[in-house]
Amino acid sequence: MVRELADGEMRVVADAPIPLAICRVKDEWFAFENNCTHEDFPLTEGGVDGTEVECALHGARFCLRTGEVRAFPASCPIRVFPVHVEGDVIQVELP
């Protein structure tokens, strides 16, 4: 899986118990709930700019490290989760 994701690319995790996505930014890996908090819309439909993800629907932006809102119209953060990479396997810690 590690080699399948290019820098700045996001991917939906299909088998997760919640809407989940992973993203690679250079050598950092991020996992986040794949749902804009402004309006129920998948963040993977948008794009990644540095360590921020932008919702394609209304332009809300979120920090991939903390989940905090970086641009309105969203006012609530997204949930982010710890990621561990071992070899070619990506592991996400879910609550």
Would you kindly provide a written description of the structure presented here, covering whatever features stand out?
The relative contact order is 0.22. The strands form 3 sheets. A 4-stranded antiparallel β-sheet has the order 1-2-3-8, with no helix packed on it. The chain has a 4-stranded antiparallel β-sheet with strand order 4-5-6-7, with no helix packed on it. Helices cover 0% and strands 40% of the residues. The chain contains no helices and 10 strands. The chain has one domain: Rieske [2Fe-2S] iron-sulphur domain (Rieske Iron-sulfur Protein, 3-layer Sandwich), CATH 2.102.10. It has strands at residues 10-13, 20-25, 28-33, 47-49, 52-54, 61-63, 69-71, 80-81, 83-86, 89-92. It is mostly beta strands. The mean pLDDT is 96.
Summarize the topology.
Elements: E1 10-13, E2 20-25, E3 28-33, E4 47-49, E5 52-54, E6 61-63, E7 69-71, E8 80-81, E9 83-86, E10 89-92
Highest-level CATH class = Mainly Beta
Sheet-strand content, in percent, reads 35-45%
Helix-and-strand structural type: mainly beta
Please state the overall shape, judged from the principal axes of the Cα atoms: globular
Summed over residues and divided by their number, the pLDDT gives a mean of 96
Q: Largest sheet, order of strands side by side? A: 1-2-3-8
Here the CATH topology equals Rieske Iron-sulfur Protein
> What is the H/E string?
EEEEEEEEEE
Q: How many structural domains are formed by the residues? A: 1
- Straight-line distance between termini: 22 Å
The counted number of beta strands is 10
CATH superfamily: Rieske [2Fe-2S] iron-sulphur domain
* Weakly predicted, low-confidence segments: none
**Helical segment count:** 0
The major beta sheet can be summarized as:
4 strands, antiparallel
CATH architectural grouping: 3-layer Sandwich
- Helicity, as a percent range: under 10%
Alpha carbon gyration radius: 12 Å
